[in-house]
Amino acid sequence: MGALSHIRVLDLSRVLAGPWCAQNLADLGADVIKVERPGAGDDTRHWGPPFAKDANGADTKESAYFICINRNKRSITVDISKPDGQEIIRQLTKDSDVVIENYKVGDLAKYGLDYESLKKVKKDLIYCSITGFGQNGPYAQRPGYDFIVQGMGGFMSVTGEADDVPGASPQKAGVAIADIFTGMYASTAILAAVIHRDRTGDGQYIDMALLDTQIAVMANVSSAYLCSDQVPQRWGNASPIIVPYQTFPTADGWMIVGVGNDGQFKHFVTAGGQAHLANHPDYCTNPLRVEHRKVLVPLLEVMTRKKTKAEWIALLEAVSVPCGPINNFKEVFENEQVLARGVQIDVPHPTAGTMRLVASPMRLSETPVEVRLAPPTLGQHTDEILRERLQLDEAGIAALHAKGIV
């Protein structure tokens, strides 16, 4: 029994932030019903290749993007533009605890599926809206895209090589971090709302915005600006306040070295046969190394190129200097620690046969996360949910199919 096995979630969201939030709740045991458009479904179902392959190596219709954010959910198709479809959503809301949606501000009101409407059928409803810019303010009506929010929220201004590096430019993250973090914050907010409801009997409305989240997760960078009024700059893979704390080339690839104190610096350069650098008057303390980084770092790069990545990591781990490789994803999933932790899991799937997924990182001793369901095919559970939650008979279900409602 998962920690949230008593919670029912109606997931009206699409693409990434909302589905990521709902998947977190599903992993913790919640019964999550994913509502999708008949015939098309979530946009991410079509975002490929790559697609999962079946037992014969042929592509299925299950995109890698959709797969990563929709496990442990049941899929129902409902046309919410039609009154009968809207009524299905209202009936599902009656015995749900949480509704999650990421429509544009005001869009669901015209269908009678906004918070004010649905709380009339479920007075203690917890309703979470996820948008690009929130429910108020001059940008509220704008569509929210992760890439744009990474730029607007300051992330790209501090990501990428420094301005004095040839070809330098602002860079986005390799994954949609504004979406992912908004989904994580939304999960936390929903859990807090569930606890509040259990204590008081009151539901509530949750307003999540990608831009708010992006600024919040800038953490010490945002704080540095607010404390100093100095605009943070791009430093590439280097740290503005610690040297050396960056990537270094080796004889066969790249590694990360994170020297956090003067003792670690001494061990680093000694391992590379350059012990004299530890006592050099320009490099013996971190403030001095920061001041003279433009001279020091090229010297260290000459040193690191003389050994392989594996040789360096073995040497530095032996003297407790923080370091690590930059793995591609083949190396990630072959890593001994990753294998020991069971990060990759295999689950049965109706079209792919066996589907490889990334396990949830949440490890709970008493209520462990369990993958109960593979990411669903489009509308896989429609009839099941209509029978179970709306108590419809076969004739009633057939009528909804015939009218194109589901």
Automatic annotation (TrEMBL):
<dbReference type="InterPro" id="IPR003673">
    <property type="entry name" value="CoA-Trfase_fam_III"/>
</dbReference>
<dbReference type="InterPro" id="IPR050483">
    <property type="entry name" value="CoA-transferase_III_domain"/>
</dbReference>
<protein>
    <submittedName>
        <fullName>Formyl-CoA transferase</fullName>
    </submittedName>
</protein>
<dbReference type="InterPro" id="IPR044855">
    <property type="entry name" value="CoA-Trfase_III_dom3_sf"/>
</dbReference>
<dbReference type="InterPro" id="IPR023606">
    <property type="entry name" value="CoA-Trfase_III_dom_1_sf"/>
</dbReference>
<dbReference type="Pfam" id="PF02515">
    <property type="entry name" value="CoA_transf_3"/>
</dbReference>
<dbReference type="GO" id="GO:0008410">
    <property type="term" value="F:CoA-transferase activity"/>
</dbReference>
<keyword id="KW-0808">Transferase</keyword>
